[in-house]
Amino acid sequence: MKYESQKVAYAYFAVAMGLFAIQVTGGLLAGWIYVSPNFLSELLPFNIVRMLHTNALIVWLILGFFGAAYFLIPEESEREIHSTKLAYLQLLILVVGTLGAVLTYTFNLFEGNWLLGKEGREFLEQPKWVKAGIVVAALIFLYNVSMTVLKGKKTAITNILLLGLWGLALLFLFAFYNPGNLSLDKQYWWYVVHLWVEGVWELIMASILAYLMLKLTGVDREIVEKWLYVIVAAALFSGILGTGHHYYWIGTPGYWQWIGSIFSSLEVIPFFAMMAFAFVMVWKGRRDHPNKAALLWSLGCATLAFFGAGVWGFLHTLHGVNYYTHGTQITAAHGHLAFYGAYVCLNLAIFSYAMPILKNRDPYNQVLNMGSFWLMTSGMVFMTFVLTFGGTVQTHMQRVVGDYFMDVQDQIAIFYWMRFGSGLVVVIGALLFIYSIWVPRKEVIEPGAAKTPAE
Amino acid sequence: MRADLLTRAWLTLLGLSLGSALLTLVPLRPALLGAGILLLALIKARVILARYLDLSGSPAWLRGFTMVLSGFTVLIFGLYLI
Amino acid sequence: MSDTSLIDELPGELLMWVLIISELLVFGAGLVAFMGVRLTDPAGFAEAQSHLHRTGAALNTAILVTSGYLAAQALHWRRAARRFAARLALLAAAALGVVFLIIKGAEYADKSAQGINFETHPFFMFYYLLTGFHAAHVLAGVGILLLVTWRDEPRNIEAGAQFWHMVDLVWIMLFPVIYLLG
Fold first, then answer.
1. CB within 8 A of C38, min separation 6: which ones?
2. What is the mean pLDDT of residues A200-214?
3. What's the confidence (pLDDT) of residue A125?
4. Touching partners of C (3+ C-beta pairs < 8 Å)
């Protein structure tokens, strides 16, 4: 650790990993409700479990991004963070807001209250005061990192990262607009949800990946930057109008079907470019960095993002296909592998890289960490296949043959059982990851003298 | 890029555009007409790439663009014939 | 490594080429979709197409290739240190872009007077979508040409001219498919 203020990232990563554990546990619970639908139906209905699962995901990923920014910006701009106090204050606001949203939603406190009650909108259900808190925290963050970058050295990585983080914060403002018309509500809602994960988050992803590649492979900065610009241009070009693929069936004019189909098909390109980038950098790299776990997560991230977001996304993005598959388990398959590949693996890669440095602890417990990669990844890939097959059967029975929804659900129960099993593997993997980061002080396998890295 | 080559490219483009305009006036079988129009468009696209966009100095890229555009034209022509 | 040297062969900014390729992919996909949907109703498409102004559009082709020529010439002149001539050529190129838009606008006004809109027929949905999207690029291109007339460093002019040639190139492929193939 070169700069003292990088320590801020430690707190962010810790909270993020805590929420990660809660998120996957919530996922497991939701998976169980799929096979046993009455489980907890009074106490904790499915919609709340699902909200916890998705919102905890978003929050911990964003906390991870913030932590990553606080970790890498001092190194890139070659100076300390503008204010560490503000950084901790920002984290505090986010934690209080998250707790507030969870409690309000779970117990439905202040029902109907303009300021305190939940808003009831999928993903944007946070009470107004929490939304305002998120904006304040975001402003603090942007002020803090922008001041750091402005006073220090500017690199392509920090420029793109800041662009992505500014976009993330500004796009969230759409969450405050809540039109009475449900179609309009969805239309604006996607400005947050889609333009995040298929727009500005890709910039954050590309820049963090570029940073990791720079550190892990030792390739020239100039080459990394060239790739970064191309990836970012491709992501924004396809992602912005790609929002159209959410507008097929919500009452917007028919031309959205073509705008959405064409642009969102091109969204595969930036993900392909990121995968190509990661592998080309590793092949060209001169440095044999000892942190193999971080490299594994980085390569896994680029590869699984290409398959999960790129290939599985393309699978049902054309409106002719989506007409049949919309809202089936195909969507769930894509959602799981895309988020896992693109953003979960990215965060776990930066955690694996940064945590040993932050804890002043070498070696890195590579074996356990890498084991958790293979556990989580195989669980998630298996889940994706299971849901894809289940979704195909569902699409045929429900949308082509025209069977009733619940009859079809009974028919595909076997897939839900297998999904629960794969989910269990993912949770074990996630807990193993957290354990490997925090607990062991000694490496499981002592490196032999010959294998000791030269650097 | 030499100026006379640029001017020649411009005149070629005007000539080819006039050509496709005249082609639509001639009573031809639809397949023949379509082929003629698309071929002229393909040549025009190649002139723009080579001279205006200055790819003549980079044969590999010019070849790549020409191949993809030719494939595209064939696809359009195929859809036109069905 | 060979792939970087190949990328270095591309004239001008790499990002402009990323944009050019992306735009070609989008318009290419749109035109293929157009021809694909045409299969469902060839007679309706032919009928709808007969409402278009072929002459106006053909004239627009000549205008755009001439404008592109001026933009390319401007870069040539700027590199030869003939700064004033370069600026004049850029202004003329932008002016021709405006003429293109006026002709296009008249075409749209005429369609609108006939009561033709997005919903009239799938042909017109694609017509408006593709030509409208292209016209938006022409409008942006005029702005960019004016911008590089003002900030006239050679690399700026090169990037602006490349954008303009891309607009030209798209029109060259769009015009025959939408207006002529009946």
1. B79, C45, C123
2. 96
3. 85
4. A, B
Sequence-distant (6+) residues with CB within 8 A of C157 are C74, C75, C78, C86, C90, C148
Predicted ipTM beyond 0.90: yes
Query: Three-class SS string for B41-80?
Result: HHHHHHHHHHHHCCHHHCHHHHHHHHHHHHHHHHHHHHHH
The pLDDT tens digits of the residues spanning A135-158 come to 999 999 999 999 999 999 999 999
Q: Give the DSSP per-residue string, A22-64.
A: HHHHHHHHHHHHHHSTTTTTTTS-HHHHHHHHHHHHHHHHHHH
Residue C56 included in any domain: yes
CA distance C170 to A376: 46
CA distance C70 to chain B (A): 9
Structure tokens at C123: 């042909």
For C34, other C-beta atoms within 10 Å of its C-beta total 24
- Nearest chain B residue to C17, by CA: B53
Residues of B in contact with C12 (CB under 8 A): 54
| CA distance readout (Å), B19 to A55, B12, C53 | 61, 10, 18
Q: Determine contact, residues A127/A112, Cβ cutoff 8 Å.
A: no
DSSP state of C118: T
Question: Using the beta-carbon criterion (under 8 Å), do A254 and C119 form an inter-chain contact?
Answer: yes
Contacts of A277 in chain C (CB under 8 A): none
CA torsion sign for A205, A209, A210, A215 is positive
Give the distance from residue C163's alpha carbon to the nearest chain B alpha carbon, in angstroms.
Answer: 9
Q: With contact defined as beta carbons under 8 Å apart, do A81 and A70 qualify?
A: yes
Contact (CB, 8 A) for A304 and C21: no
Across the interface, do C65 and B45 touch by the CB < 8 Å criterion? no
CATH number of C127's domain: 1.20.120.80
Q: Residue C3: its chain A contacts at CB < 8 A? A: 280
pLDDT of res. A364? 74
CB-CB neighbors (< 8 A) of C14 in chain A: 226, 229-230
Residue with tokens 């990215």: A346
End-to-end Cα separation, chain C, in angstroms: 48
For chain C, the residues whose C-beta falls within 8 A of a C-beta of chain A are 1, 3-4, 7, 14-15, 18-19, 22, 25-26, 29-30, 33, 118-119, 125-126, 128-129
Contact B72 C11 (CB under 8 A): no
* Exposure string over A93-129, b if 16+ CB within 10 A, otherwise e: bbbebbebbbebbbeeeeeeeeeebbbeeeebbbbbb
**pLDDT score of A455:** 44
Residue C9 domain-assigned? no
Give the structural domain span for C165: 16-180
Q: How far apart are CA A94 and CA A135, in angstroms?
A: 10
Residue of C65, C77, C126, C179 to mutate when probing chain B, most B C-beta within 10 A: C65
Residue C42 within any structural domain of the chain: yes
When pLDDT is averaged across residues C173-179 and rounded to a whole number, the result is 96
- Whether C9 and B21 lie within 8 Å, measured CB to CB: no
Model pLDDT, residue A454? 47
Domains in chain C, number: 1
- Other Cβ atoms less than 10 A from the Cβ of C136: the count is 11
Q: Which of B17, B25, B29, B66 to mutate to test the interface with C (most CBs of C within 10 A)?
A: B17
Q: Answer yes or no: is C139 within a domain.
A: yes
